[in-house]
Structures are given as structure tokens and as C-alpha cells.
Design goal:
Layout (H helix, E strand, L loop, with lengths): L2 E5 L2 H4 L16 H4 L2 E6 L17 E5 L16 H13 L6 E5 L5 H17 L3 H10 L7 H11 L10
Parallel strand pairs: 1-4, 2-3, 2-4
Length: 166
């Protein structure tokens, strides 16, 4: 499965070939019908559609902050329930369609989700070296959040032995 990690502004700037109108402004376009999406927004972002202007079975929208811990209890941390949501969503995806994962910056939260899903689809379920290389070449900016990475690995691949990622 081809996986791209992007920031939330990417959708407002990306245009399909032959068009000068960003895909965000074309919710009826084939781009939205032909791809899968996981969109993550900050806890203080009230707009559910801040990056992905559609809903449907090919879209999962989550809201949590990029943090490993929260001693002041002011943030929404990624938790087991969110990891299970992503795992359930991933298991029902049409793997013939590309997957776009986004958060505000496209580096940490979405980076961790993208890394784990790349492992899951392109190494764990079946070995797909072309898609593994695609992910590495298109997502060089990633610095995955270790909390997200650890919890999601346990949700998707519980029998796989990974070091503690928290």
C-alpha cells in the first residue's frame, strides 16, 4: 500500500494534474473518492474538516496532541482506544488505494501512524519492497511520536516483539 504523510496545509495547496484549484476546494473530485485518509488535528482545533473536507468509510478523523505525557492534564494524549480505532480502520481499508495521513506539521503524530502502517501493510501482512521504498523516499521528514508508535504497534501487531516505544 502506498502511504504518504503530509501536513494539513498540503490539501489546501495540492492540485491535481491539469487543475489550478486545490483538492481541498473540490470535495467531489476523484482524489477524495480514490484515496484513504487518516486526519489528526490538535485538541484546540475546532474545525473537524481542517484538512480533509469529506467524511466516509475511507476517512478516519482523530483529535489528539503531539505529546508523550501530560502532567498538567491540559492535553489530549493518544491512547489505546485511538490505537484500536486506527487498527480497525486499517484492517478494512481498500489496499489498492493510496493512504494519506496528516497532522498539523506532518512530522510526529502522522509520522508515527504512517511508519507503523507502512510496517503493517508492506512488511507484516505481505512484503512489498516497492511500497516500502516509496514510503521512505516520500516521507523523509518524519520523526514519529514514540507514544503513538508504541501503542499503534501493539494494537496492529500484538504478537510482534518491539522494544518499549513509550
Amino acid at each position: 500500500m502506498r502511504i504518504r504523510v503530509v501536513n494539513q496545509l498540503w490539501f489546501r495547496q495540492h492540485c491535481e494534474p491539469g487543475s489550478s484549484v486545490p483538492v481541498y476546494e473540490q470535495p467531489e473530485s476523484g482524489f477524495w473518492r480514490d484515496c484513504n485518509f487518516i486526519s489528526i488535528r490538535n485538541s484546540d482545533e475546532p474545525d473537524e474538516n481542517c484538512a480533509v473536507p469529506i467524511s466516509g468509510s475511507q476517512v478516519l478523523k482523530l483529535q489528539f496532541d503531539d505529546a508523550i505525557s501530560d502532567p498538567d492534564h491540559t492535553l489530549i494524549l493518544f491512547d489505546d482506544a485511538m490505537a484500536q480505532q486506527i487498527a480497525q480502520f486499517a484492517r478494512q481499508l481498500d489496499r489498492a488505494r493510496p493512504l494519506f495521513v496528516n497532522c498539523a506539521a506532518g512530522i510526529s503524530r502522522s509520522g508515527a501512524v504512517g511508519e507503523v502502517l507502512n510496517e503493517y501493510f508492506n512488511r507484516y501482512l505481505e512484503y512489498r519492497p516497492g511500497d516500502l521504498d516509496f514510503f521512505r523516499s516520500r516521507n523523509r521528514q518524519l520523526q514519529g511520536n514514540p507514544r503513538v508508535r508504541g501503542l499503534l504497534r501493539r494494537a496492529l501487531m500484538p504478537e510482534t516483539s518491539y522494544g518499549e516505544d513509550r
